[in-house]
Design a protein that fits this description.
The protein is an all-alpha fold and 68 residues long. Helices cover 90% and strands 0% of the residues. It is built from two helices and no strands. Helix 1 crosses helix 2. The radius of gyration is 17 Å and the shape is elongated.
């Protein structure tokens, strides 16, 4: 359950920040702003980034715990 809720918090904050940055960027570039697209892209990117970093670092944690 901890893994699920930690990923949920990351996705929620990524969507919030993505919406803000997407709105500002769309306004500065004079582009149309689509909140659903921006939210989906930032949610997926945050999920992949956080879990990718965790999985890449998993081997290092195993070696550190066995060295103790």
């Amino acid at each position: 359950m901890k893994w699920f809720f930690s990923n949920l918090i990351v996705v929620v904050w990524a969507v919030i920040f993505g919406e803000i940055i997407g709105y500002i960027g769309g306004t500065l570039e004079k582009m149309t702003y689509d909140p659903m697209t921006v939210g989906a892209i930032t949610a997926v990117a945050a999920f992949v980034a956080v879990n990718g970093i965790w999985f890449m670092n998993r081997e290092g944690r195993k070696q550190a715990s066995s060295a103790k």
